[in-house]
Amino acid sequence: MCIGVMLSSSLPLTWAMVVSALFVLTVDVAAALLFRWVASKHTDMLPSFFTGVSGFRFLLALVVLAVWFIVSDSKSMKIFFVVFLVFYMVTLVHQTIFFSRVSNRL
């Protein structure tokens, strides 16, 4: 309950940007570390790894959106959804470019 009061009393745009940036940073760092391990030990598993990372990122994004929906009001949900969607799309583009360049070097 305390989180809901904190979210509604603060600037929704600021919270949306902070949560979205933390989501992107966490997913990117985890994917990069896992990619390094998979690429060095199991290169034959890279296509499955790319699919797994995409699916995990999507499910994690749904969890973040669901939690935000539970603890926030309608106005901050709309702002959060738009900001999070922009961050999510940028992450998709970034990881596609990153993994394609790194895979070409292997």
Describe this structure in a few short sentences.
The chain is mainly alpha-helical and 106 residues long.
Describe the structure.
The protein has 106 residues and is mostly helical. The chain has one domain (11-105). Helix content is 91%, strand content 0%. α2 (12-41) runs antiparallel to α3 (46-71) and α2 (12-41) packs parallel to α4. The termini are far apart.
Relevant terms:
4 helices; mainly alpha; single chain; 106 residues; elongated
Give Rg in angstroms. Answer: 16 Å
How much helical structure, as a percent, in the residues? over 70%
Order of helices and strands: HHHH
Residue stretches low in confidence (pLDDT < 50, at least 5 long) are none
Q: Largest sheet at a glance?
A: none
Overall number of strands: 0
Shape: elongated
pLDDT averaged residue by residue: 82
CA distance, first residue to last residue: 49 Å
SS class: mainly alpha
- What is the percentage of strand-forming residues? under 5%
Tally of individual domains: 1
